[in-house]
Amino acid sequence: MRRNSSVELLRLVSMLMVVGYHYVYVGGGGWLARQPMSIAKFVYQFVYMGGGWVANFMFFAMSVWFLMDREHTLTSSLRRVWILERQLLFWSITLLAVTLALHHEGVYVGDGLAMTAVRSVFPLSTNLWWYASAYALFLVLLPFLNDGLRRLSKRRHGQLAAVCLVVWGVGGLVPHVEFGLTDASVFVFIYWYVLISYYRWHMRELDVRSCWALIGAGIVIELVYLLAANAIFMATGRMAGMQMFIFDHWRLPSMMIGAGIMLLALRRRFHSVFVNVLAASAFGVYLIHFYPPIFRCWTTYLPLPKIFGSAHPIISGALVILMVFTVCLMLDLLRQGLFRITVDRHRGAWFDRLAAAVRGRRVRRRTAPEGGAVDSTE
Question: Do 221 and 169 form a contact (C-beta atoms < 8 A)?
């Protein structure tokens, strides 16, 4: 089945928004929050930073949307994790080598290289990239989660979704009310999957007006929080961090905006090989720019305070974000080409052989006579 390039284009835009979020929020959000209110500050916070978790929600929702009506087994999920792991290992090892070279030349002066090396060899289990680790674990849990939700009636699934929305959606709008969902982890994806699957399986499709209403409501809520937090800081000089609260993690307004945009994209169908090829490297942009030493390097040499203090801060900030995104995209396109002529010629073939061998061992064990000797080849 041909990919809908409207969705693939949104995948690219989502990753551009993630780069902007990381640059502002992680790279200097605390410093920015202490600056006087201005148009430039508003654009950096509301546009560059504000799109991060909107993009995270859309990226996840687009990934699982087309998985919801398929049959899932543990083997099929592990196969997806295997394929994901190849890309992670390629970039973790490659970027580790780049980091060591930069450290030797004095360009990268960070410490903890030994631990970085360990994490780079085991990127999934050490949470080198939180999104990749959480998504891989989600894939492992997906067959069981999907079966469980399918067995629920529409009413019971709706009750579960409502409880999740009240506890983590409405409750999450109150500072320090978290109910255990405190970190970017697999539980965030499970929470989102409960909501998305209920809409996909049981609700009537939202029309265009409703989608825009969802987007508008989410934007208004974020605006109110941002302006109120800035006003409090300007009046008291305190609670600067509250300016970032509404844009952090799994806040409901970000989900509303992301859901509305994604549903609009699903309505528009077109096909472009060029867009689809670019979108296949969107995840690589995340892996490259957010590899810890690489992220530290480019945010050190392109520091947010310096860019924000330039003559044209809005344009300068946009150029930095676009430049980092473009360079990382081009690098992963090279990786994609390399994979196409090597490991992707028979995609997942090694895993299929391993799975077949494991199945063969199980069959031989089940069919062996009781008390009989076990084949030495096992």
Answer: no
In tens, the pLDDT along 195-249 reads 999 999 999 999 999 999 999 999 999 999 999 999 999 999 999 999 999 998 8
Place of tokens 């391993």: 354
Enumerate residues 6+ apart whose C-beta is below 8 A from 238: 232
Write the CB contacts of 352 (distance below 8 Å, at least 6 apart in sequence): 79
Token duo for residue 275: 């867009």
What is the residue type of 1? Answer: M
Give the Cα-Cα-Cα angle 56, 280, 198 (nearest 5 degrees).
Answer: 45
* CA distance linking residue 190 with residue 232, whole number of Å: 35
Judge contact between 262 and 58, C-beta under 8 A.
yes
C-alpha 205/C-alpha 174 separation (Å) is: 30
CA distance 118 to 101: 17
* Residue 252: half-sphere exposure toward Cβ, Cα within 13 Å: 19
C-alpha 371/C-alpha 364 separation (Å) is: 13
pLDDT (average), residues 147-160: 96
CA distance 335 to 86: 11
Phi/psi-derived region of residue 180, left when phi > 0, alpha when psi is between -120 and 50, beta in every other case = left
Give tens-digit pLDDT for 12-35: 999 999 999 999 999 899 999 999
Give me the amino acid identity at 152. L
Residue 46 Cα to chain centre, angstroms: 19
Q: Please name the residues in contact with 53: beta carbons below 8 A apart, sequence gap of 6 or more.
A: 21, 247, 248, 249, 250, 251, 254, 255, 258
